Amino acid sequence: MRNRPVLALSRLALIACALACAPAALAADYPVLRGSQFEDAPPPREIESAFTWSGFYAGGGVGYSRTRFEPGTLGLQTQVANLDASLRIAQNYRLGSSPTFRIGNDSGASYAGFAGYNMVFGDAMLGLELDYTRLNHDYQSSPQAVQLISVSGAGPVVNSSVVSSQRLEDYASARLRFGYAWGRFMPFASLGVAAGRGTSTVAVAPDALGGSFSVRTRNSAMFGLTGGVGIDAALADNLFLRAEYLFTRFASFEDTVVDINNVRIGAGLKF
Q: How do residues 108-147 score in pLDDT, each as one tens digit?
């Protein structure tokens, strides 16, 4: 009988032990995030927005251009015909032959402004750009020997010379651009159309008949093609630098082919 109290105490000890271990077992089966885990976790990182070349932009730049004027076989013939008509009316003389003008070149600084829009598809870029270039390049041909013949036949034949000059004042272009976005660098190629303005003059030597007879066409329109390659480099999300080469050809300037090689640098803003 003396063992009964011992057995009772043993049973009570086992029950107490089971009750004490139950919360730990439940905690193992049902994990709960504790406050210390939240306190030790690193703060969430801010998500940085990726740089993109898409959208509108505008800018300007300076460059160095070389312009080549190449008159064709009919180059400036409209001007020559008008000069001949002026001689007949004013001096009763006519041109004994039609002069052929030689090739001329000019080079110097140019100034440009541009604006456009880029669409980005993955790393590929397709865009449209409009630009304006001011350069004021011109040339004057060497004198071409001609004879001035009296219309009535009463006057003597006069040996003289005819000179011409042509000036390209400015031009604008619309170009499609094709580029590859390589992070903050974007090489590109472009192709489009151009339109320009120029003036042309043909004159007989001033000392031939005691005066100069010239005809000038102001703001003669010319049309052609343009294209080139370049690279844009972003300094910030809304500021980029540009280096570019462009070739432009006009074939409608008084039957004169005008080629322009233009190397320029510039800067632009993205919107």
A: 999 999 999 999 999 999 999 999 999 989 988 888 888 8
The pTM for the full model equals: 0.75
Strand, coil or helix: what is 76? coil
Q: Residue 224, CB half-sphere, CA atoms under 13 Å: how many?
A: 21
Buried (b) or exposed (e) across 186-210, using 16+ Cβ within 10 A? bebebebebbbbbbbbbbbbeebbe
Structure tokens at 32: 């709960």
DSSP structure class, residue 208: T
Angle 211-217-220 from CA coordinates, rounded to 5°: 160
Number of other CB atoms surrounding residue 232 within 10 Å: 26
Cβ–Cβ under 8 Å, residues 237 and 111: no
Rounded-to-integer distance, Cα 212 and Cα 90, Å: 11
CA distances from 151 to 154, 188, 209 (A): 8, 61, 14
Query: Cα torsion for 214, 219, 223, 224, to the nearest 10°?
Result: 80
**Residue entry with tokens 């013939």:** 77
Q: Return the bridge partners of 134, or none.
A: 111, 170
Q: Tell me how far the alpha carbon of residue 31 is from its chain's centroid.
A: 63
Q: Looking at domain 55-91+100-144+164-270, which of 3.30.1330.10, 2.30.120.10, 2.40.160.20, 3.90.1150.10 is its CATH number?
A: 2.40.160.20
